[in-house]
Structure formats: structure tokens, C-alpha cells
Amino acid sequence: MDPVRNPFAPGAGQRPPELAGRDREVDAFEIVLERVARGRPERSLVLTGLRGVGKTVLLGELRSMAMHAGWGAGKIEARPDADLRRPLSAALHRAIRDLAVRHRAPERIDEVLGVLKAFALRSSPEGTKLRERWQPGIDVPVKNGRADSGDIEIDLVELFTEVAELAQDVGSGIALLIDEMQDLRPEDVSALCAACHELSQARVPLVVGAGLPHLPAVLSASKSYSERLFKYSRIDRLDRKDADFALIAPAEREDATFDQEALDDLYVRSGGYPYFVQAYGKAAWDAAPTSPIGAKDVEMAAPEADAELAVGFFGSRFERATPAEREYLRAMAELTDGEDHPVETSLVAKHLDRRASSLSPARDSLLKKGLVFSAQRGQIAFTVPHFGRYLLANT
Asked: Please, is 232 exposed, middle or buried when counting C-beta atoms within 10 Å of its C-beta (0-12, 13-18, 19+)?
């Protein structure tokens, strides 16, 4: 079949396969937008799940919904050990520009942008030479005295207050979407929670975070009241009906379909994980000469999809691990027989015939790199679906 028309290629189609089965989250966000638009306080949202379940795509859809509703919306991707001020400034700059087209007082926009610029400029360490300071690209004079104390918690409260009031001027809201939220520095997580708590009754920028399964624990460790600040939604693999829909709907837009045996095989291979559904669907489309796509087409295409996943999805992450970390990962895979189950850390130590304390550095580094997460105290699990299967087959 024509690879140019492949509806499973990255970026193809109006509604990517990763979004199938997420109607509950989309509908819930629609209600949140309506509640905030009516001036009612609403908790921010946190989406959690393994890699490959489509959190980033869903986050993008929620951002589009906010913008369609007339909100200002900005999105950032957290980076380990990176300062929050710079990406947050860029995201809010974009959100304020979204609102500017509807605001009747340009001087008010410039005033808020001046506060944002003052906030952003504090990202440069004290004593940095003027020519070496980071410039945020906000073409208005700095408005000193707000959001520029250098204390991120105080500054976030003042900045959020400014942008929330600006949104109220046009009867709208501000959405701040944060991907990989678990990678925020502890002090930034604490400040974000504190700002949301301080402004919980105001139309504070609605924070929508997405991250790995242990993100709620990260937030709770930062502020004990975090469970009251956020609504948590677990994003998981697709059930059979939604996984089939993620394949059938894009194909039908190209006047093609899958037979039942092909759908059966694709579900077994993908496990219902959206990223894998798309990978195997793309390969099957390219391998099939005609419609309907059959089980033989899937079987022929599977090695190509496996190879692509081994390099781009699994291999790229495995390469980030040190030899000691790879030994730990391999032990996890052997203990779980390649299945997506948590394992006791004590069993990993026993399997490697090592003291648990001697493995702590490797485990902690894997946690920081986002390759594993602590399912519960004393347990560890892969953040990447089918990673154990990959390790047993390729290492």
C-alpha cells in the first residue's frame, strides 16, 4: 500500500492513534475549562503513566482545547536539573500573546510582560556580567518590584497573580502544561505547589502536568498538601476496543481496513500501548500490497517494527545506562521473565549476589534517568513497556 498515504506515520492524520481511548480525560478537561470560565475554582491536573501511553499527545490535545476556548496556553518540557524560570517564562510569554489579540489595553499587556521579563531575568546567577546574562526575548521594559525577588516561591505567586488577572480582563484563563513534570528540580516542584496552594481560590494559571507513575509521590514529598491541589488521572494502555479503533479509524480515512486476524496479532504484539500500536500499524501498512491488511502482512512487517523500536525506543534509552546500571536492568528483566511487573529490590540484590546497599547508586541513577520507577516502597519497575522483553532478547 502507498507509504506516502500511511496514516500511522508520525504526524499523519487529524487525530493521531495515540489519542484513541482518551475521551474520559478530554471530557473531564472540557468541564474544567467551563468551570474556570464561570469563575469557579478548579484543581490543576496531573496525568501519569508509563512511557509510550500517549501522555505527550494528550497534553497537546488539552492545550489545543484551551486555546480553542480562548485561553492563553503555554507548554514546557521539564529537564533534569534545569532551572524552571527560562522555560516557564517562554511558555507564559506565548500564553500572554494568545490573550493579547483579545485585550483592549496594550499598555496592560506590556505591564504584565514587563513583570514576566523581570521574573525571567532572575534566571541568571547573581553577579553575572550584563553581556553574559540570558535575554528572554520580551521586547518591553522591565517592570521591577514584582516577581523578581529571586525566591522562586514568592516570585511564582506574584507572577501567577499577574497573568491570572490579565486572563480575567478578557473573561478567559491561562493554562500551563508541563511535560515530564517529575524532572523538575525539588525546589521548583515545591514552589509550583506552594503557588497553586496560595492562589487556590483565584483563577490561577491552570497547571496540567504529565509524568511517570511516581510523579504523585514526587509532588507529595515536596508538599504534604499536594494531593488536594491536583486531580490525578492514570493513563494506561488501550483496551482491545480502543486499540482496534486506533488502527481501524486512520485506515478507513484512506479507504483501507484490517481483517480480524491482523487486529488480533497487532494487539498481542503492541500490548495495547499506543506508541507500539502506531509503530506496528505503520509497518503493517507499508508491508501490505492491498486492503484488507491481513495477519501475513503483520507477520512480515513485525521485524521491521521490532528493529525500529529496538533502536529508537528501547536502544536510545539503554545507551544512556552505565555498565553497572545495565547489569541492574538485566537482572530486573530476568526476575520478571521480561514482563511488565515490579520486582523487589532485595530480589535484585540476591539475584546479583550483591548487598543491596552496594546497588543503591545504580538504582538511584536509573531512577533519576527515568528508566525505572519505584512502584511502591522496596519495589522497582521499568518506566518503558516491554523493556524487559527487549533486554532479554538483545543484551
From this structure: middle
Q: What is the Cα 258 distance to its own chain's centre? A: 30
CA–CA gap between residue 319 and residue 79 (Å, rounded): 18
What SS3 class is residue 124?
Answer: coil
Q: Which segments of the chain have a pLDDT < 50? A: 13-16
CB 77 within 8 A of CB 87: yes
Task: Write out 267-312 in H/E/C secondary structure.
Answer: HHHHCCCHHHHHHHHHHHHHHCCCCCECHHHHHHHHHHHHHHHHHH
Q: Is the pTM of this model over 0.85?
A: yes
Query: Cell for 341?
Result: 511487573
Q: ω into residue 10 within 30 of 0, thus cis?
A: no
Distance CA 111, CA 99 (A): 14
pLDDT value for 143: 93
Q: Are 115 and 149 spatial neighbours (Cβ–Cβ below 8 Å)?
A: no
Q: What is the pLDDT of residues 141-159, one digit of tens each?
A: 999 999 999 999 999 999 9
Which residues share a beta bridge with 76? 178
End-to-end Cα spacing for the chain: 34
3-class SS of residue 373: strand
Using an 8 Å Cβ cutoff, are 261 and 228 in contact?
no
